[in-house]
Write a structure and sequence with these properties.
With 271 residues, this protein is of the alpha/beta class. It contains ten helices and eight strands. Helix 7 crosses helix 9 and helix 7 (146-160) packs across helix 10 (237-244).
Length: 271
């Protein structure tokens, strides 16, 4: 008879093979996210996405052909005690050997009047890179999924006035030799929710002091709801938003920006 931990692990590669395991392994292969000898810090926030990521990476390490090491790290940015307990309990249920370290990010962000989520994300990433490097890692893995990608694209267009996506991997500009990877890149959020419910798992949400009042948070929720509404009439909407980042027709755009430099279509129009 399987233990609860084993049942949860089994569900990823059986019950949710089509929805989670295959998209996960496809992203790892297609975007070359994991290489031989990597030491990867799987960054766990305590939410459903990062907890699933930890289990997927563990399964990949067990059954994949590429040999790599994993460090499971949890940063406590100032969570309430009950939130910390929930993260520790879920790690115990899932059998994840986490390493917890603390920071004062929530206290700093709480004093900001504007863009708290943006500041929090940047600070979190800096702390995670630094901790991962201390542990001898060359990569950090984050739990961003397919819906995060398409929401980011629409957010940038509708509220930022630019076309910007969320790449599956990114080299750090501040930490030499470090790289960020997003192995859940092709996994839909609904599949992650169903996996958690199927296994009777309850994870934390953001747990931030300012999230409920954050303008950025409300905008992302608005975009999430917009995509859902559009998908009711056309189930391919999400996939098409994603594909748009793979099919940018440079000949039809007015300008492109690279390395901070903007180039207009007029610059090469008569050449």
């Amino acid at each position: 008879m399987l233990t609860r931990k084993e049942e949860i692990e089994r569900s990823i590669i059986t019950k949710f093979r089509k929805e989670i395991w295959r998209p996960f392994t496809k992203a790892v292969r297609q975007y070359q996210l994991v290489q031989e000898g990597d030491v990867i810090a799987v960054c766990i926030s305590g939410g459903k996405d990062s907890m699933l990521l930890a289990k997927c990476m563990e399964e990949l390490q067990k059954h994949g052909k590429v040999k790599f090491e994993i460090r499971y790290i949890v940063m406590n940015p100032g969570y309430r005690p009950e939130i910390c307990e929930q993260i520790l309990e879920n790690a115990r249920i899932l059998g994840i050997d986490i390493q917890v370290f603390s920071s004062d990010i929530f206290d700093i962000v709480d004093k900001q009047d504007s863009s708290p989520c943006y500041l929090c994300a940047r600070m979190r990433r800096g702390f995670l890179y630094a901790r991962a490097k201390e542990l001898g890692c060359n990569k950090i893995a984050l739990g961003h999924h397919f819906d995060d990608v398409i929401e980011t694209i629409l957010l940038s267009i509708l509220y930022g006035g630019e076309y910007k996506s969320m790449p599956p991997k990114l080299k750090s500009t501040n930490f030499a030799g470090m790289e960020l990877i997003r192995p859940l890149y092709l996994v839909r959020e609904d599949a992650i929710v169903r996996w958690a419910r199927y296994n009777d798992l309850t994870f934390i949400n953001c747990a931030c002091k300012v999230t409920d009042s954050s303008d950025n948070s409300s905008k992302r929720l608005e975009i999430k709801q917009l995509i859902r509404q559009l998908e009711e009439n056309n189930p391919n909407i999400g996939a098409n938003i994603f594909k748009s980042s793979e099919n940018v027709n440079i000949e039809t755009v007015l300008a492109i920006k690279k390395d901070g430099k903007k180039t207009s279509f007029l610059d090469n129009y008569d050449k």
